[in-house]
Design brief:
The protein is mainly α. Helices cover 75% and strands 0% of the residues. The chain has one domain: Rhodopsin 7-helix transmembrane proteins (Rhopdopsin 7-helix transmembrane proteins), CATH 1.20.1070.10. Helix 2 packs antiparallel against helix 5, helix 2 packs parallel to helix 7 and helix 8 packs across helix 9. It starts with a helix and ends with a helix. It holds the Pfam family 7tm_4. It is a multi-pass membrane protein. GO terms for molecular function: G protein-coupled receptor activity; olfactory receptor activity.
Length: 215
């Protein structure tokens, strides 16, 4: 559902722009798109960390997997992935769209923070600090949890004596590892410099990676 929601926030409007050449969006529409993009994006970060834990248990404690990751634990982990997105999306969107705007053209295929920030004609120093701190908390903390999980997974795989066994264990989490790499590398490069004027076209390509490719 997170993946579907993440796509629905971006893709329909993008397709409308490409096919019908409808490049306009209202102020409220832009703010709404921004809110749900952040909500689903933050939830995605924590969901990927939860999935990494699932891979860790499956490979490092396979015999205890049904006990550790029981249906009740699965439900709690899935629900917990949703909650961090609510305060982050609310604060980011409310704060950003209360600034005065001097421009009306968002140089992007959706209302992302960096292109919207370029339209603001006010002191953004405090918001930029908040944005960087928020990125560290939302992106890097789940990323560190994922790295810890994969460190343990790699150590467990290396202890498997047969090549067939190693391949089977690696294939269990290979798709998740690819998605994590695409998502975290591209999103980190975009949001650690929220008001950067360098290469906006490259940021569009990076945005395509974590908004459309990874889901």
């Amino acid at each position: 559902f997170i993946e579907i929601g993440f796509n629905l926030v971006i893709v329909p409007k993008m397709l409308g722009t490409l096919t019908a050449q409808d490049t306009t969006i209202s102020f409220l529409g832009c703010a709404t798109q921004r809110y749900f993009f952040f909500f689903f994006g933050v939830s995605e970060c924590f969901l990927l960390a939860t999935e990494a834990y699932d891979c860790y248990v499956a490979i490092c404690n396979p015999l205890h997997y049904p006990v550790i990751v029981n249906p009740w634990t699965q439900a709690k982990l899935a629900i917990a992935s949703w909650f961090p997105g609510i305060p982050v999306a609310t604060v980011q969107t409310t704060w950003l769209f209360n600034f005065p705007f001097c421009g009306t053209k968002v140089n992007h295929f959706f209302c992302d923070s960096p292109p919207v920030l370029r339209l603001v004609c006010a002191d953004m120093a405090l918001f930029e600090i908040y944005a960087i701190v928020g990125t560290i908390l939302v992106v890097m903390i789940p990323c560190l949890l994922i790295l810890c999980s994969y460190t343990c997974i790699t150590a467990a795989i290396l202890k498997i004596p047969s090549a067939k066994g190693k391949h089977k264990a690696f294939s269990t989490c290979s798709s998740h590892f690819i998605v994590v790499s695409l998502f975290y590398i591209s999103s980190s490069l975009t949001y650690f410099h929220p008001k950067s004027h360098n290469s906006p076209e490259s940021k569009k390509v990076l945005s395509l990676s974590y908004t459309i490719v990874t889901p």
